[in-house]
Amino acid sequence: MAKVTHCEICGKKFKWYRWRYECKQCGKNVCGKCLKTVRDINIKSKTYGKRIFLCKDCYDNLQREYKKAKDIIVVRSSHVGGHKTIRILGEISTGIAYEDFDDAKFELQYNTLKMGGNAILNYKYIRHKYSQITNGGGTYYYSLFTARGTVAVVEKIQKSQKRVAKKTELGES
Ligand SMILES: [Zn+2]
Ligand SMILES: [Zn+2]
Q1: Is the same domain home to 63 and 81?
Q2: 49: domain range?
Q3: Do 53 and 83 lie in a common domain?
Q4: Cα 27 to ligand 2 centre (Å)
Q5: Any idea which ligand is nearest the CA of 4?
Q6: pTM for the full model?
Q7: pLDDT tens digits for 41-78?
Q8: What angle do CA 93, 96, 98 make, to 5 degrees?
Q9: How far does residue 57's CA lie from ligand 1's centre (Å)?
Q10: Which ligand is located closest to the Cα atom of residue 36?
Q11: Are 106 and 142 in contact (CB under 8 A)?
């Protein structure tokens, strides 16, 4: 295997001050300027929950996916106001515990997208209590969170379409 001597994005030569990094996604060799560090939230990945290196191109692709994940509808009950449930794809839960609510929620949103859903129903946080003993002899507690929900495909009901939907239900085509 020939050794890559130049950054595969900007084309600059690797030197002692311009290190070579490998993109976890596409395997390209890139320099530090063409590199981004992210946390791997792909549950199926071996490096899940850890920090990984991505090249700028793969990072941009990921950002586009992240943006789409933000559009996932998250509701705490099976009642999705203004939407109707088309199908349930399965249960989902975070693989690791997070200090921040939003991180746990976002992991579910991102994985919902991967499962082909656009909504999480019956969304719920689960609090885990951890203890930590300090030098002072006291025990301090802190919490971590996981989250879970049901992945579903829902469709927005438009007011003008309600009548049409009703007709379809009655068997007219
Ligand atoms: Zn570069
Ligand atoms: Zn890449």
Answers
A1: no
A2: 21-67
A3: no
A4: 6
A5: 1
A6: 0.70
A7: 776 778 777 888 999 999 999 889 889 988 999 988 76
A8: 100
A9: 11
A10: 2
A11: no
